[in-house]
Design brief:
This protein is mostly helical and 130 residues long. The chain contains 4 helices and 3 strands, in the order αβααββα. Strands 1-3-2 form a 3-stranded antiparallel sheet. β2 and β3 form a beta hairpin. The longest helix is centred in the first third of the chain and has 53 residues, at 3-55. The relative contact order is 0.08.
Amino acid sequence: MSPETLAGLFGILGALVGGLISWWLQKDRASTDLRIALESVKTEHMAETTARHFLQHKGYTDRSFELLRERLGGFDDDELRRILVRAGAIRYIRRDGSEFWRLLSREGEAIARAKARREAIESSEDDADR
């Protein structure tokens, strides 16, 4: 074999080995990055699921932000608010300044409860006047 051919073969062999090593390192790094990204998404998804669980309780249409913050520890206030919005919740501030959250899908239920409560108060006032 001529020295030029031998040099060409070794050049090709070196490029192939170098390419395989580079591919293997990139594949390993990409799988690690993917695992980290999936874990991050999993944490946020589980936080949304947990928030939805608390907001779907049969007895309570509304939950205070303090209770949700206590139950969903590990998030700062603004991050928790973003999680609640992604879970489908809306925020409202009561007259006393406290922050409460409710699922948008339960808005009709909360309105019906408030209306029934108002009617019960009005009927008890009417009974007292008689």
